[in-house]
Automatic annotation (TrEMBL):
Gene3D superfamilies, alphabetized: Winged helix-like DNA-binding domain superfamily/Winged helix DNA-binding domain
SMART domains: HTH_ARSR
HTH arsR-type domain sequence ranges: 12-107
Protein name per Swiss-Prot or TrEMBL: ArsR family transcriptional regulator
InterPro entries associated with the record: ArsR-like_HTH, HTH_ArsR_DNA-bd_dom, WH-like_DNA-bd_sf, WH_DNA-bd_sf
An example Gene Ontology molecular-function term: DNA-binding transcription factor activity
Amino acid sequence: MSTPRHRTAPEHTHPDDVPVLTALAALADPVRLTLVRELAGSPEWSRACGTFDVPVGKAGLSHHFAVLRAAGLVEQRDEGPRRVNRLRRTEFDARFPGLLELVLRAGS
């Protein structure tokens, strides 16, 4: 009989603690940019990690979400077996006014 696995809660960096170069580097990657854009078009806490249309496996996706959390862009929480996400738009915009809007607009 196997023992149940428990995930540790993800660590989050508040945007106030993020240098601008960290934020820019996180947004420069095409996969992370896709994740941010898809989150921007979704209601908060409605997107589980496995629902994004990106060309990476589970480990790669985990890495990209870790980078986004470290840059203060994404917050995650566990809901049962699912890890759901939200874009920290308000907090990020307070730290870097207009940056997220510019990045999101550049893709349209």
